[in-house]
Amino acid sequence: MKFKSDFIKEIQSRGFIYQSSDIEQLDDLINKKKITAYIGFDITSDSLHIGSLVQLMLLHWLDFYDHKTIALVGGGTTLVGDPSGKDDTRKIMTLDQINQNIIKIEKIFGQFINLNKNGSVINNYDWLSELNYINFLRDVGSKLTLNKMLTYESVKNRLEREQPLTFLEFNYMLLQSYDFYYLKKNYNCLLQMGGSDQWGNIINGIDLIRKMLNEKAYALTSPLITNTDGSKMGKTAKGAIWLNKEKLSNFEFYQFWRNINDEDIERFLMLFTNINLNEIQKLSQLKGQEINEAKKILAYEVTKITRGITSANEAKDIANNIFNKKKIDERILTFEIESIELQKNNFSILDAIEKLNLSKSRSDTKRLIKSRGIKINDEMFSSPNLSLELYSNLSEIKISVGKKNIGILKIKK
User: Fold this and answer.
1) Is 282 part of a structural domain of the chain?
2) Could you report the per-residue pLDDT of 111-149, keeping only the tens digit for each?
3) What pLDDT, on a 0 to 100 scale, did the predictor assign at position 236?
4) Alpha-carbon gap, residue 25 to 277, rounded angstroms
5) Within the chain, how many helices (H) and strands (E) appear?
């Protein structure tokens, strides 16, 4: 299918489109005028992680082509909990917890959209908290059927597994539909985008807009992004890859992208950078050792667009010091220990790696030692009693776990 609008052509060529409603009509509309579109974001944590990066990049491209973008934070819906893609009931959060999370998440949006021009961050608590429940059930609940809701994969999966799906969570579908209706009515928002697990909720919103306003709206979802081995992207032994640098250092964020599978390079360059498509094509042709250059470019560009050029330069500089110059860089994870503790064997390699959070467990560390996956100052660690006594006369040592997890143990005399 050949598209006309710059925005649809861009996201289609980069692999963002999974499902859509009346996309030819939407494309024709966008080609003629600027529109307003939105994506809703979960705020159950004080940072987004890279599972949200596809959606943030969709907003980025919408903003790039001068359309109006709305990042909708779910201050109201988070009080309920979205069952989409979840196997169990969400933990109920307090309003104060939610508001604290919003404060920390808002600054992330500014990296992807121009909040001083066409972009805005809106909290659905502003209108959901004002709803009269009786009126809401009468006006909205009467327009959406359980028959249709029960056909959505997010609901079917929970019911088939006989896992709880509370009435509270069922209301989430009504609330998200109402969000789209509210934004269409008050902001002339024509398009809702989201992950593929949000398709049912978005379609409900389109139906509600048609029934209550007699107007047209559109849906567009992106695919679930997995690694080539089928695993969910962004989940590591140490946990989620957070976008906020207060939760994950610039170096660790950079290194995640630096160490992706070779087969993922082209796809991730398409989705997570704004590098020209012709340049991406050239980078994807690199083979052997040269492929590492493409990974470095990917790591730098994703870090730059997510955290800014200063953070990207810092991460690149640290990586260069550690891997090319073989220098210890003070900006990576550190932990301080008294030299006497090493001499007494009161602090082993297991303790050091645990304190530096370089592996998921002590048993995992033991497995890595057996498989020769741990180095100290770039030499293989092989002490049979796991002792660090040999290094007690040094002022600091570099501990490497696998290819990408590195920390510094400072030794106080």
Assistant:
1) yes
2) 999 999 999 999 999 999 999 989 988 888 888 777 777
3) 56
4) 26
5) 18, 13
Q: How many domains does the chain have?
A: 3
CA-nearest of 222, 408, 260 to 329 is: 408
236 occurs within a structural domain: no
The number of CA neighbours under 13 Å toward the Cβ of 227 is: 14
Considering the domain architecture, whether residues 276 and 214 belong to the same structural domain is answered as no
Domain encompassing residue 310: 249-324
Residue linked to tokens 């429940």: 133
CB burial class (10 A; 0-12, 13-18, 19+) of residue 413? exposed
Which helix (H) or strand (E) segment is 125 a member of? helix 125-128
Averaged pLDDT for residues 242-268: 92
Q: Is 338 helix (H, G, I), strand (E, B) or coil?
A: strand
Instruction: Find tokens 């009435």 and name the residue.
Output: 167
Structural domain includes residue 231: no
Beta strands in 183-311 (DSSP E): 189-195, 218-222, 235-236, 239-240
- The phi-psi region of residue 326 (left if phi > 0; otherwise alpha if psi is between -120 and 50; otherwise beta) is left
Q: Which of 51, 77, 85 is nearest to 163 (CA)?
A: 85
